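Lecture notes, part 5. Sequence design as translation. It can be helpful to think of inverse folding as translation between two languages: the language of shapes and the language of residues. The source text, in structure tokens, appears below.
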């Protein structure tokens, strides 16, 4: 009985250590991506700016709640696509991917200003 408990404690300790190492490693990688890849920074800066514009237009009454929600959803989908592209390319996006994302952002941007 004593050996089983000791074995379980050792297993829990090892699994906890592995989990913490994985979380710390992935957090570091995410931070490194932002600093070292200007294409991702540019895309994400545009998304943040558009988010502010949507909020401002909603506050001023230029957009309904439904319109604002739709635009936020479109921006969220673009952000998810950017993350997926980056995860497939070692943490960065290609020039072609940036162009594609910018075209999608342009479409949302035009909707905000209507």
């Amino acid at each position: 009985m004593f050996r089983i408990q000791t074995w379980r404690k050792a297993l829990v300790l090892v699994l906890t250590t592995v989990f913490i190492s994985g979380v710390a490693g992935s957090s570091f990688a995410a931070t490194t991506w932002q600093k070292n890849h200007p294409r991702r920074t540019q895309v994400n800066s545009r998304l943040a700016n558009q988010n502010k514009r949507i909020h401002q237009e909603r506050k001023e009454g230029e957009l309904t709640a439904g319109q604002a929600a739709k635009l936020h959803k479109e921006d969220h989908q673009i952000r998810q696509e950017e993350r997926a592209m980056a995860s497939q390319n070692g943490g960065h996006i290609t020039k072609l991917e940036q162009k594609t994302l910018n075209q999608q952002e342009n479409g949302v941007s035009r909707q905000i200003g209507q």
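The translated text above is only one of many valid answers, since several sequences can fold into similar shapes. The mean pLDDT is 81.
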